[in-house]
Amino acid sequence: MNFELTINPIDSVEAQLEIILVIDKDLDHRFIKDKDLLEKSAFKSGQDESCLLIEKDRLYIGVESIGSQNIRTAVATGIRRVKSTPYKTVKIASYMNHPKCTAVIRAMVEGFILGAYTFDKYKTKKSKLNIESITISLEDYREFELDIKACAKALEKGQISAEATNFTRDIVNTTPDDCYPEIMANIAKKLAKKGGLECTILKPKELKKEKMEALLAVGRASRHKSRVIHLAHKPENPLATVSLIGKGLTYDSGGLSLKPSGSMVTMKLDKSGGSAVLGIMKAISEMNLPIEVHGFVGAVENMIGGDAYKPDDVLVAKNGKTIEVRNTDAEGRLVLADTLCYAQQEVKADYIFDLATLTGASVVAV
After folding, report:
1. Is 227 a catalytic residue?
2. pTM of this prediction?
């Protein structure tokens, strides 16, 4: 999809479909052209409620109040509603009686891209989005002195962040046979090459040398050997240094503490934290943020076999602490423990964030 900003009035913009946001249930706003029809169709204009008037080529979507999240979800709802229609061009008015319009522009762009996402890699029949271009009218901002460059930058950032999110979704949704530790490492290498990032990949030999025995234990029963990924974005004179650590369990069977079969079905999702780190690094490199950011991913597959680690094992983590294993399905904390220690060894960060699908024990605790 291509995006265009214009200060021209929405009614002067040519498009096959107009999407109209109904803010605060205000059906009397000048952008609303079909109040009678909306009332007859029982359109209540609640958040994300939609009403498509085919004969008018207009789609109305409710927004409870102006705010990035509300705008984002409403626009995503709209694009999903018309995804299978033949419309190729869309126009939408961005209105908020405030000079700081950039947040709304960014939220709109993110909503369109995120809402249009589909994962059909394994489907015989691929889905097709007909919409080719979207024009955003800034008509309601005309009384303000707009910084067009700032508006264009907001649009660009919206595209980058949403596309990075969809990139992350693709990794998360990919099956374990197609996305295992080595593949995650290859994805990181491609990101580094394209985005000018530094990239270090630790293989089992290097992991052994780094004494990352807890992480290695989790992955030793898998035919797909473990990796630790380190991506770095290093601008000149950074404002701060940040480390991101992601849990990248490409598949989690539970190990010898085997999960019930029903709980295994979604375990390709256990790499979500690591996938998010890769997506964030993609966005950061494309935005060229003035912050030094390091992304670490512990990419491991937790399987069963004669070489699997066991309940009652005592492992020695990278920092020398011993860990008694009581349940091999508590593998995420072992992977993160060693990856966090490695990250702290490699980078003196001002801030450290870990991203992980943890854990069933939190439900027990609550």
Report:
1. no
2. 0.95
